[in-house]
Amino acid sequence: MSHKVFNRIRDDLCNYDRYFIQKSDVMKKVGLLLEQKMASSLRMLAYGATADQCAEYCRMAKSTSIECLQRFTRGIIALYSEEYLRALTLVDLKRLLAKGEKRGLPRMIGSIDCMHWQWKNCPTAWAGEYSGRKKILTIIIEAIASYDTWIWHAFFGMPGACNDLNVLAKSPLFDELTAGRAPKIQFQVNNKVHKLGYYLVDRIYPRWATFVKTIPNPTRPKEITFAKAQEGYQKDVERCFDILQASFGIVRGATHGWDKEDL
């Protein structure tokens, strides 16, 4: 992280939550520096370090490291969600549609898929619900990613025993569409007019007008070309998951949290 970004977050957090300001206790003993609290949180997020591992490096107790991480993540969401975690706007939609047309898939919005995050400290009473087909306790995140690895839709919290269809049934992805507030998109293919944009998905998803799947066992040249393009561009979301796990070690390994809301 650059010094400029670090200093910006530091100043914003101080103004947002006084917990990060260095204070003295009743015995006039000076408390932890803001930089210590931020370093502990960033190490846990970026490297997947546990609270115990931060104790020696940052000179902080385990309980303090956990509290710092919770307050840090909540502060980041409160401060920057409006800009960086926003939903798709009309300007964003036009940009994605233009890029999809250049790639040979007109009116393609993005790629959708799900990722499982292992939950090490899942309560025993919930083990059956969160145990997937690999007998590992996981929580599912559904995401839509664009060509530039921007996740503009994320739905997190479904238990690992569910599949992509179960997650889709609970997802708020099409709430705006069913309410009639989604932007109008119209295009023509093979002399047929379509009024919905579409997402690239794998074979488990249903045969909806807004989903485009690959052609199984293509034989003709056109089918082979389409399947190659669809399968290649559908990897955008999988590539985004890989980048997310490479950048944040806390997502790459099993999470040690106890509360699903904190996760």
Structural class: alpha/beta
Helix share bin: 40-55%
The global form is elongated
Task: Provide the low-confidence segments as ranges.
Answer: none
Q: How many strand units?
A: 7
Please, how many domains? 2
What does it look like?
Helix content is 44%, strand content 15%. Helix 1 crosses helix 4 (62-84), helix 2 (34-47) packs across helix 3 and helix 2 packs across helix 4. The chain has two domains: 3-84, no CATH class; 90-252. Strands 3-2-1-6-7 form a five-stranded mixed beta sheet. The protein has eleven helices and seven strands.
Brief write-up:
The chain is an alpha/beta fold and 263 residues long.
Per-chain topology:
Elements (H helix, E strand, L loop, with lengths): L2 H14 L17 H14 L3 H8 L3 H23 L5 H13 L5 E11 L8 H4 L7 E8 L5 E9 L4 H7 L4 H4 L8 E3 L2 E3 L3 E3 L10 E2 L8 H13 L1 H13 L1 H4 L11
Please give a handful of descriptors for the protein shown.
two-stranded antiparallel ribbon; 15% strand; 2 domains; 5-stranded mixed beta sheet; 7 strands; 263 residues; alpha/beta
